[in-house]
Amino acid sequence: MSASAPPVQPADMDLKQFEADNCGSCRLASLIPEVCRAEDCCLGVDEAGRGPVLGPMVYGICFCPVSKKEELKDLKVADSKTLTEAERENLFQNLDQAKSYVGWALQILSPNMISTSMLQRMKYNLNALSHDTAIGLIQYALDSGVQLKEVYVDTVGPAEKYEVKLSQRFPGIKVTVRPKADSLFPVVSAASICAKVARDRVVKGWKFAEDLGQIDTDYGSGYPNDPKTKEWLLKYLDPVFGYPQFVRFSWSTAQTLMDSKAVTVRWDDDEEDGEKAAERQNNRSMLSYFSASAEADRAQQTHRFFTERRLKSLKSL
């Protein structure tokens, strides 16, 4: 009887940097093949995780010499959404084994970063964030010496406007923006696979900063209409502090649940003194939680929300 073959080791994608701080943004990249610095290259751009209420969004690029397009096609890359997780892992393994002429880079955008960007005073919507992330990755390839001549992008928003925007940003490069580009161009399919593999791994190995005890990781697909996802959101909704940072709290699904299930909070406005307004309403002002006296009163019982995020009260500015 022949010995069974050893299990295939996951292709190299070191997520330690993101896992050490999963509340911001992190860039990962392969080594740049020398041939990509010497020959004209094509590059594909795609993302994974745009719609889910849980977990990060990952933008990916993949690039190779124009002369290697057929070899890339022979790797049988396809739109990651049409593949199983195991199939995506196998294809990423194939891309890794082709690293003599294939390179990739990823930008992982945490749920916290996405939500804070969308809810900041100067609105920064998901389309703008997506465009800027894609532009940043293309620029990274250029700065790394990749000789880009062709760029293919799966569109976000109107394809024609996005194509003009990228063409103006990167003159001298032929830019093609199409809906469903991940099913039309192998180099975009490859970028899609890299991005989806990264998201799958990050979600599966998510390190919760919050003390949630024995966490239930059966949260379904992460999409808002998934019953398992909705059940998980209800289970881990803190009535005062909302959701762990694994959740995109700016998504309407999360906001609706917070509005209906969480404690109502009255935020003081600029037109009325906060403490007086709270007194008039027979309710404690949010500002009082950050006062020096309040800090002294609760020095021995600081809520985990503050300690987990290393937040402290300011006595002076």
UniProtKB/TrEMBL annotation:
Q: Kindly state what the record says about how the cofactor is bound.
A: Manganese or magnesium. Binds 1 divalent metal ion per monomer in the absence of substrate. May bind a second metal ion after substrate binding.
A Pfam family: RNase_HII
Residue ranges occupied by any RNase H type-2 domain in the UniProt entry:
40-263
Question: Which residues are noted in the entry as a divalent metal cation-binding?
Answer: D46, E47, D154
Q: Which InterPro entries match?
A: RNase_H2_suA, RNase_HII/HIII, RNase_HII/HIII_dom, RNase_HII_hlx-loop-hlx_cap_dom, RNaseH-like_sf, RNaseH_sf
What PROSITE patterns would the database entry show?
A: RNASE_H_2 (PS51975)
Q: Per the entry, which co-factors are needed?
A: Mg(2+); Mn(2+)
Listed SUPFAM superfamilies: Ribonuclease H-like
List keywords of the entry alphabetically: Endonuclease, Hydrolase, Metal-binding, Nuclease
What EC designation does it have? 3.1.26.4
User: What reaction gets catalysed by this protein?
Assistant: Endonucleolytic cleavage to 5'-phosphomonoester
Q: What does this protein do?
A: Endonuclease that specifically degrades the RNA of RNA-DNA hybrids.
PANTHER family given in the database record: RIBONUCLEASE H2 SUBUNIT A (PTHR10954)
Instruction: State the similarity comment.
Output: Belongs to the RNase HII family. Eukaryotic subfamily.
This chain belongs to which protein, by name?
Ribonuclease
Q: Which gene encodes it?
A: RNASEH2A
